[in-house]
Amino acid sequence: MNTSLTPGLEARRARTALSVNLNVVAMVRNRRTLAIPSVTRAAELVLEAGAAGVTVHPRPDERHIRAADVRALAELMKQWPQAEFNIEGNPFHNLMNFVRELRPQQCTFVPDNEKQPTSDHGWNLGADAERLAPLVAEARALGVRVSLFMDPQPGAMSQARALGADRIELYTQSYAAAHGTPVQATELARFAAAAEVAQTLGLGVNAGHDLNRDNLRDFLTAIPYVLEVSIGHALMADALELGYAAAVREYLRCMNPR
To answer: Which listed site, 9, 131, 163, 235, has its alpha carbon 20 to 30 Å from 48?
Structure first.
């Protein structure tokens, strides 16, 4: 795939922010009662290395990120006023309690159920918009940006806009699975079409799920106006070999090659 960009598109892509998802750090810690590795220390290290923010997804069963972690990170982020704290999760479970208490810069509404090992689909706004509307309005009234986790369906973007969302986060698993295969271009076209409609409607575009050092640059080349990518599992796997700081720098290099 040709990854060359015109100077204008290169400048637009350079604005993409990296938010590091810390759930894997908490999952490793929770195997023992030793309080290591530290979630807050991991946050410090990735922010020092140049990440624009951190993401957590505190599920009700606390199988990785715990309520205490969310509050500790909120306190830590006061030392990083230029960085973003993104709390994601299902607003019908426990997410809104954190939004009301901590007022992060962004909350990402994700339609997962309590038994899912990881997020695996976007919102069906035809079915869920009525229930979501008051929660979107509440979060925005608290000064919290709202992003909706969405599949790459151009027709759903107008529903997200009508609901009052500020951004959508494209669920990128299908692109990641297709990367390097004959259907990569077809998948990228789906995401580019959805992102184009979202942007035209005034929605910001985020992206996340299974993005890694191999597939990230191609994605951002095809969709240069992505505002933020949220990456956790792959980045933490790389950090086991490279260390937190070097892993973050590698992802930033993929996002903004020079």
So the answer is: 9
